[in-house]
UniProtKB/TrEMBL annotation:
UniProt cross-references to InterPro entries, sorted A to Z: Isoprenoid_synthase_dom_sf, Terpene_synthase-like, Terpene_synthase_metal-bd
Keywords: Metal-binding
Domain Terpene synthase metal-binding stretches: 1-101
Protein name: Terpene synthase metal-binding domain-containing protein
Organism: Solanum pinnatisectum (tansyleaf nightshade)
Keyword Metal-binding on entry: yes
Pfam family membership, one: Terpene_synth_C
PANTHER family assigned to the protein according to its UniProt record, in alphabetical order: OS04G0344100 PROTEIN-RELATED, TERPENE SYNTHASE 17
Gene Ontology biological-process entries: terpenoid biosynthetic process
Amino acid sequence: MEQYMKNGIPSSGYVLIATNSWLGMGKVATKDAFDWIATEPPILVASSIIARLLNDLLSHEEEQKRGDATSSVECYMNDYGVTKRGSTHEIRNKIKNYWKDLNEEYFKVDVAITPRVLLMPIINLTRVAEFIHKDEDAYTFSKNNLKHVISKILVDPII
């Protein structure tokens, strides 16, 4: 499970997305800030792992049917000899703890190097992951609820 978590950071894509989100932010995104994010700080690690684990909880059965790589659910079951239910319960606890880490790190970051405005894309990406994986893997099955929600936001917003 530990090795899976390490691999989950780059495979979530959040390091790349968070870094790219800074490109249009002007002078506030300094070289020092980019150097900082390149170190994979704890706030970014927590965000990445939350996204990876949320995805695994809802997509692991479909991925297993397709013969994809083992997910955190299976890794936890194998490493600790627990049932699928026990594994998903523990992974949900891990997600809660990583949210605590993310929130704690938000207040620890040196704002002289990385202003809060640069941290918000990391926080917001994590919020998006929670939303997309609330009831189903809405990213994979986007024709269901996600398509409707995006339409409501962009096409027919409540103002």
